[in-house]
Amino acid sequence: MRTTILFGCLLISASAIAQTELRLWPGVAPGSEGKTGVEKVRIAEGGDHVVSGINNPSITPYLPAKPTGVAVIIAPGGGHAELWIDHEGYNPARWFQERGIAAFVLKYRLAKEPNSTYTVDGEELSDIQRAIRTVRSRASEWGIDTARIGVMGFSAGGELAALSAMHFDAGKPDAPDPIDRVSSRPNFQALIYPGNSKRFTVVQGAPPVFLVGGYKDRPDIAEGIAQVYLLYKQAGVSAELHIYSDVGHGFGMRPTNGVAVAGWTQRFLEWLGEEKILR
What we know:
The protein is α/β, with parallel strands linked by helices and 279 residues long. The chain has a single domain (38-274), classed as Rossmann fold. The chain has helices at 14-17, 86-98, 120-137, 139-142, 156-164, 219-222, 224-235, 259-262, 264-274; strands at residues 22-23, 40-43, 49-52, 58-62, 71-75, 83-84, 102-107, 149-154, 189-192, 209-214, 239-244. It has an eight-stranded mixed β-sheet, with helices on both faces. It has a three-stranded antiparallel β-sheet with strand order 2-3-6. Residues 1-18 have low confidence and may be disordered.
């Protein structure tokens, strides 16, 4: 079902909402029962905020003043042990917001931090699925078209975004929680130097994919994204691939990025236009 949007009349104060973190579940997230640990943030060399100890998964909305109807849920990377949430989260979210795309930075539970009881295919996947359902359930409120909601993930977050495009459902009509009645299928996926790509498959109904990586990344990623492109090509699902020759892993969106790789976000917007997602 599509949401009808009167774009000319809908104005949202982005500055008032941009930093409001919204928990994905009203109470304890399933699988986090009894968890009392406090979320931790460290400052990496260069100033990046790095988050760990997440037991209350959330999204932070960046809503544009003049929405185009497109929305993207952004999953930062960090090896499933932490989240590098600035250059792989907040920075691209602000950039998209300024161009009319609603962006939602996802804090998901981490399967590989010390002593974690969470799993990638369990709680992490559940978190991004819940984020997709949440955004879709509030689409009219946020100026979003329900048929133009996608995911973007970096590194480990790229693996998680890809999993959401492999494991989705139409929602459970009789679910007590109204959010669970909504589809978890992303309408597009952007995988930025995704990890563990050997496990990726193309399922029936898979959304189109936009792939970005660096030639100097480690082989499993630099070569793996090319294999993902071929998987989608062979399955007849639209795919676009960009490999930048002079970068390695983790470039994300930084002010220090070179001219060529700094343009990947613009290439993404162009791809959204070619796919008739961004109109």
